[in-house]
Amino acid sequence: MGAYKNPFGGQRKPGSNKVSRPKQFAKKKGHRANEDRSPPKKSPWALLGAVGSFAAVWVFTIFKIQSDSKQKTLSDKTILRTLMFKPVVYTDHAICRMKCRFITEHDVEESLRSGKINARKSKPKLRPCAKYVVDAKVGQQQKRTEVSNEFGEDNI
After folding, report:
1. DSSP 151
2. What is the pLDDT of residues 104-141, one digit of tens each?
3. Exposed/middle/buried for residue 116 (C-beta within 10 Å: 0-12, 13-18, 19+)
4. Residue 154 to residue 106: CA distance in whole angstroms
5. Distance, CA of 103 to CA of 100 (rounded, Å)
6. How many helices (H) and strands (E) does the chain have?
7. Cβ distance 115 to 136 under 8 Å?
8. Helices (DSSP H) in the chain: which residue ranges?
9. Which pLDDT tens digit goes with each residue over 82-104?
10. Domain locations in the chain?
């Protein structure tokens, strides 16, 4: 029986503890010798597929954003409608700020009629009374109204 030869082992070089690797990319002879070494050719269908998938994701995102904004505006309108038909009570602080900023009661009513709820600054889950911040363009300026629904009345 012959000596066992490790098929994965290479030859040791004298004076070194490293094993030499076989030359994997040696030049082959023949006219098709270097065909394996050339980079693979890219198909134009791959580019078309990438562009198509990007377009599909983009269209899906646009439709999703539009449907979300429609739902938000519907819920905003229902909340603002309920706030409009409740009696309005102005706090002392609100009256002072309205005087300083030249905001009339008509401007507040108009902002409740035509404004949008600022979801970032509103606190609808605040208990016992939710707080909504309404942004509206009344006249020539952008006005922001803070409305809290307390005990069936609107405190502004």
Report:
1. T
2. 888 888 888 878 888 788 887 887 778 888 888 777 77
3. middle
4. 15
5. 8
6. 3, 5
7. yes
8. 44-84, 92-100, 105-114
9. 878 888 888 888 888 888 888 88
10. 50-155
